[in-house]
Write a structure and sequence with these properties.
Blueprint (H helix, E strand, L loop, with lengths): L3 E5 L4 E6 L5 E7 L44 E4 L10 E9 L18 E10 L4 E10 L4 E10 L5 E13 L5 E6 L7 E6 L3 E6 L9 E8 L10 E7 L4 E7 L5 E7 L6 E3 L4 E3 L2 E7 L2 H16 L13 E3 L1 H4 L5 H14 L3 E4 L27 H12 L2 E6 L3 E2 L4 H5 L19 E2 L5 H15 L4 E6 L21 H19 L4 E4 L9 H4 L4 E3 L6 H11 L8 E6 L12 H8 L3 E5 L7 H23 L1 E6 L8 E7 L5 E8 L9 E3 L9 E7 L13 E3 H6 L2 E3 L3 H4 L6 E10 L2
Parallel strand pairs: 20-21, 20-29, 21-22, 22-25, 25-26, 26-27, 27-28, 28-29
Antiparallel strand pairs: 1-2, 2-3, 4-9, 5-6, 6-7, 7-8, 8-18, 8-19, 9-16, 9-17, 10-11, 10-13, 12-15, 13-14, 14-19, 15-16, 23-24, 30-31, 31-32, 32-37, 33-36, 34-35, 34-37
Helix pairs in contact: 3-4, 6-7, 9-10
(2R,3S,4R,5S)-2-(hydroxymethyl)piperidine-3,4,5-triol binds next to loops.
Amino acid sequence: MDRQWHLTNGLLSLVLGVHDDGSLGLLHLGAPLAQGRSYRHLVPRGWRGFANRLGDPIALEVPTSGSGDFRVAALVVGQPDGSTVLELKYREHGIAVGKPDLGALPSTYVEDDAEAETLEVDLADERSGLVVTVAWTIFGERPALARSLRVRNDGNTALRLDTVMSLSLDLPDDDWTLLHLAGVWGRERHVVERVLAPGRQSISSNRGSSSAVHNPFVALRRATTTEAQGEVLGAALVYSGNHLAEVEVEPYGTARLRMGIDPETFSWALEPRASFQAPEAVLVWTDGGLGAMSHAFHDLFGRRLARGVWRDRPRPILVNNWEGTYFDFDEERLVAIATVARDLGIELFVLDDGWFGKRDADNSSLGDWFVDRRKLPNGIDGLSRRITELGLRFGIWIEPEMVSERSELFAAHPDWAFQVPGRPRTESRQQLVLDLARPEVVDHLFGVLSELFASGPISYVKWDMNRWTTEPWSGALPPERQGEAFHRHILGVYELYRRLTEAFPKILFESCASGGGRFDPGMLAFAPQAWASDDTDAIERLAIQWGSSLAYPVSSHGAHVSAVPNHQTGRITPLATRAAVAFFGAFGYELDTTALSDADREAVRDQVAFYKGHRELFQFGRLVRLRSPFEGDGNGTAWMVVSEDRRRAIVALYQVLNRPNPQVDRLPLRGLDAGAEYRITTWPRVDDAVTGANTVTRGGDDLMANGLLFDVERHESAALGDFWARLFVLDAIDR
Ligand code: DGJ
């Protein structure tokens, strides 16, 4: 047997082979290739990048350090003699239908074994007893692969894992542009691109969670790749903790992409007979451009990573009281907000921060998950029953992973917070991070939160997390295992999520972290939607939602209409524009409904009715990005959603600043049925220079070739003002 494996589904091919020295390497990843052939010729021999080991292969699946491959390593293991040199050689392999799960870690899954095939190859280092299992899953009918790594200590002495990357790909050329999603609070997941250059280029988080700073997603695209065509390789880590994604371009023009838990903040003691499972990396390869890549991620993450009854269910339209009241509310005020919301057609009322302990500001009570009877004399039970009697569902906010110094929980268990004994604690938002590496903390939280969730008709939970982790020292771990604290904490978070979602399968969970600070695939496995950003300004949201959509499905973006002037930017945008942006997400409102004018109430009623009429198309249709806020002067953004049968679509065009005497503009559409005729209507129902020319019936071929037409005369443009948005609803008609 020539020890070569070819995973293909007609959409892509992955070919792995065992090299002459016994190591495992990548021969091909990309376009689908014919089966039954050898692809060994693709790996150059005698490669000059290695020291003294001419003949060593260029492409390694699990590169290690210290033996001549000077590129970044995927696996660094400290051994009893202090060295990190390993000789990983093929030992055995297995191929099976289906996809095994990863135990404590979230991962993509199949509903039927026929949906995927998994190859596992064991590599062993005889001297240390280390066995590495490389697992590759190929999904049928999806241009996607999942890759994970498991290491096991079959030796007699403890080993120390310093670096365990989930993915390491040796790509034969460096002719790529690296795309990633960077930001901070209030401007999460902005698209950043850089052409690969010699050396290392990386993104990472050492903040204890995936973070708003760098999302655990990267893509490599060719210079000529666009939204609609061209080669792209996307990689995402199914993990919510510290991560690293790095590309190294070495002097001979190859590129190594590695992705996994951030090695700077990680080490793990691997005792004899113990094993360690690294998180899963998901890869998408396509030559259909960034749009096809995103579609593959949306489909896989939306349908085979997200779980539970809400996965495929239309999400309710909610009103959240946070920006409406902040901490200043009582039962009557909340019921008043909910009553108006009900009259406007809203379906779910969400009570945000401030209902528990004695929390009138963000300086106390986290951890005390019992109701504040000063504000809610009838408890959560009383309030939630009043809300449900109105005909709304009821949802509640929690922040389980945190504790305030001013809290009963901290007074009882000061050692449950992360801190280094004898050193000052770094406070952030006047709160501390609970150490979920301690099983008793997870047990405690499960106990109090299950009591809360059972205390009334709660059908939605917003799970927040509002600070980064510092002093990551766990009282549950001995000194030599402190490098495990971050990862064990995340495993504790996952354990708590798993227990609560299993105990309350009907609750819709939305994750949150000071806005979109933990908007990652790991969270998606438990909470099918995530609050995308505390920045609810419609214009800022264009960039945030565009960037998020590179990897995450529209149904996962929590998106709300808020009051103006916007609380984050001070900007005043039209109510219709705020809705036209938030429609492209899990839609809701975040304002005091009682403060809306009569005209605004009428407008909201219309928005809610419009969204309900098209909700499944918005949430689960195929997203096609048309005009990027990150290109040119960023003044225009456009995207659309198309139904699976291509008979319905909604196109959105947004303009930031109005320009005098505008140019003639065309917006070619994509993804329609070329042979269909579409009747076009607009929302809001205005007849003006933007909409007028487009409320006609046109062919899909014409709309894709020539696009919507915008020919605004100079005397007409002033009426549009700044920050306008128009939606175009396309319905195929039978001829
Ligand atoms: C941060 C979240 O992103 C907000 O939506 C809100 O829930 C606050 N925390 C409450 O403290």
